[in-house]
Amino acid sequence: MNQNRNYPTLSVTQKAERSILAGHPWVYGTEITGGDPGKDGELADVVSKRGSYLGTGFFNSNSKIRVRLISRNANDRFDEAFFERRLRYAWEYRKSILGKEELSCCRIIFGEADFFPGLTVDRFANILVVQTLSLGMERIKPMLLNLLYRILTEDGQKIDGIYERNDSGLREREGMEQGRGFFPIEGLPIPQTGRTVIRENGIEYAVDFENGQKTGFFLDQKYNRRAVAAISRGKKVLDCFTDTGSFALNAAAAGAEHVHAVDISESAVAMANENARRNGLLDRMTFEAANVFDLLPALAEKEKGKYDFVILDPPAFTKSRHTVTNASRGYHEINYRAMKLLPRGGYLATCSCSHFMTDELFRNVIRRAAKDAQVSLRQIEARQQAPDHPILWNVPETSYLKFYLFQVV
User: Fold this and answer.
1) Domain 218-408, CATH homologous superfamily name and number
2) SS3 of 252, please?
3) Bridge partner list, 310
4) Among 82, 180, 189, 398, which one has the highest count of C-beta atoms within 10 angstroms of its own C-beta?
């Protein structure tokens, strides 16, 4: 190890050592056994009980995740050049795995999967939307965002603004204030609107990045929407938890006979309706603001067979291990009701976007729902999040989206 280091040092348990050596970047407060942590939001070295160097990361006494590692190389210098290399690496990865037309609508930074713990950057055409959920990233955010803007514009990408969606309660747990607004870039005028227009899979969407869910639009289902479109032609489709209508629009554009899109949020339904009009699809689409948990049982009882394709894309029912049991009940309920509604030969798309609802748990829920509904399922596809949301196998938290397509037989 390079001995000329000026960072505070923390020693950790053997359990933490094993985890770090296996590639996981988090050190929990309960795993620290001694040392000088330094200041919140600044870098600290992590060493084993024997004093062997394990890695360097951002310390935060306010967080259960006490250190978020960014490097295990003792010779790294954490200067502007270091972070510029990381940003360029992330952008070059997207350029390699996405089509050229898809680069205008993608996730550029996906937290730990891109070695920027707690940082998300989504691109919606000419706008970058940023969410910063760790104190270390917050501290160096001005450097990172200015660097990213320069990297993209030098590559010929048109960026008109960077908007911060730091309105998550997770920030308070990290000792940060919530807020939202445009981040100032020298020489770049502040946009006068909180909306933009994107094109994904040939469909145009108005994106409300100021008020929409998360960063304004869910980019992770991009290819799953294509999978739904591929089997939608001629079908009567019910899209549940439609949000701004993305699955519904893909189905309608692919030639569905009719698509009924449902969401509990009236503002989301209004946006979905606007997107349908924008794409000339209103003649084969209808929209409803309703609670899916109430709607599905009513439809199954009175209008079984009305739809031959049901799409279930609910929000995360659980955000912790402690609520997985309740979440399982919710997933079981909507899948069971959808299966009861569908005729034999009908199709079901179902997914979960919670990391804590593991693939094994989710498959078991679907299996129980099918048994209770007295149907069999023929699996068509099993899918995950789009590759601009990369999964690190040594960081299970980066894998969260489960997506299945079935035929009910």
Assistant:
1) Vaccinia Virus protein VP39 (3.40.50.150)
2) helix
3) 238, 348
4) 398
Strand order in the sheet with 347-352: 285-289, 258-263, 236-240, 309-312, 347-352, 402-408, 377-383
**Alpha-carbon torsion angle 51, 62, 392, 223, nearest 10:** -170
Active site residues: 353
CA 144 to chain CA centroid, Å, is 21
Integer angstrom CA distances of residue 128 from 162, 215, 288: 5, 9, 31
As to burial, measured by CB atoms within 10 angstroms (0-12 exposed, 13-18 middle, 19+ buried), residue 366 is buried
Tokens of 214: 């998360």
**Cα distances (Å, whole numbers) of residue 279 to 223, 246, 253, 257:** 19, 12, 8, 16
Q: What ranges make up the beta strands (E) of 140-273?
A: 161-166, 179-183, 195-200, 203-208, 236-240, 258-263
Tokens linked to 403: 């997506």
For the range 95-103, what are the long-range contacts, defined as Cβ-Cβ under 8 Å and sequence gap of 24 or more? 97/387, 97/388, 98/387, 98/388, 101/199, 102/200, 102/222, 102/388, 103/157
**What tens digit of pLDDT does each residue of 11-70 get?**
999 999 999 999 999 999 999 999 988 899 999 999 999 999 999 999 999 999 999 999
201-236 pLDDT per residue, tens: 999 999 999 998 889 999 999 999 999 999 999 999
Which pLDDT value is given to residue 321? Answer: 76
* Tokens read off for 296: 């599905």
Which homologous superfamily is 80-196 in?
RNA methyltransferase domain (HRMD) like (3.30.750.80)
Each domain of the chain, given as residue ranges in start order, spans: 9-71, 80-196, 218-408
pLDDT of residue 213: 87
Question: Does the global pTM surpass 0.85?
Answer: yes
Q: What is the CATH number of domain 9-71?
A: 2.30.130.10
Digit-coded pLDDT (tens) for 286-306:
999 999 999 999 998 888 889
